[in-house]
Amino acid sequence: MSDVNVGIVGIGVYIPKGKMTAKELAIATNGQWSEEAVIEKLGIVEKVMPVENDGTEEMAVKAALDCLKNTGVNPMDLDVVMCVGEEWKEYPLTTSALYIQDKIGALNAWGIDVQDRCSTTVTAMKIAKDMLVADDDINIILIVGGYRNCDFINYEDKDLTMMYDLSAGAGAIILKKNYGKNLLLGTHIISDGSMSHTIGVNAIGNDFRITSENLQNAYKSLKVIDPHHLRKNLNELSLSNWEICINRAFEKSKIEIKDLDYLAILHIKRSLHNTMLKKLNLAEDQTIYLDHYGHMGQVDQILSLYLALEQNKIKEGSIVSMMAAGIGFIWAVNVIRWG
Hints:
By secondary structure, this protein is α/β, with parallel strands linked by helices. It has two domains: 176 residues, Thiolase/Chalcone synthase (Peroxisomal Thiolase, Chain A, domain 1, 3-Layer(aba) Sandwich); 153 residues, 3-Layer(aba) Sandwich (Peroxisomal Thiolase, Chain A, domain 1), CATH 3.40.47.10. It contains nine helices and 13 strands. The strands form four sheets. Strands 1-7-6-4-5 form a five-stranded mixed beta sheet, sandwiched between helices. Strand 4, helix 4 and strand 5 form a beta-alpha-beta unit. The two termini are 22 Å apart.
């Protein structure tokens, strides 16, 4: 089945109504950051925040419904619902894909949750493509998820600066076997397990239990558990691993990097964003800097693609690349030929 192609039928998003401005974020740091620095260095003019009923799963349902509406796909035609939503959700230890499946009426599908932190969408797209190519019974897959890890941020924690941009939202994308257009081509992923416990929530889990004494801290318990190991390795590895992922993804796609037209990149600090554009010889209008959205985790790439199509930055024949990174640590890049 090597001649099988997999294409993107369409996408959907859900953006909550809540906002946190750069000024509000600066105030939340208790004077450690100025409004100007939040905008210029962290790259946050404002970020999206959840409001009432914006649970991780509920947002995902809304993004899925938006995707179905935009594509005209009948939910009864979905074979798999793959949820990429975060573990922070309405009911932990439940399978979000099954909740979404029920709410959108995908009665013929089966569901599964996959998780790779903020790289999950790119990873899930690879998994979905491989499933579509390998399994004759699977023809169309919905990838969908919500994100609101912003709930866990203590803005007075200096070690958490790189995550001050965490926001909220949801995205959905439908992949179809032999769709013949918007083709998902090569993907390359690198992970470094030595940093698997450098960042995490340290008040919920087998090793750290919520008690009456730590209850209040538990609500803001996303921490940099090993700052030294993280700083020493992350700065050295990120650019080089992303570069390897880019090179290998384009090699697998049999496309030259110079032909890249649009980069759907996660929200990162402004200096690193500009460095990536320079390395890839891209102009600012060949991407969208999500400084009015913040970092929606694994939703960023879907949001960027959605906005780029809306703004006509992606046209017939455009070469698109999604770039992601997730704590743990993992780096991922894919290539898409649009049209």
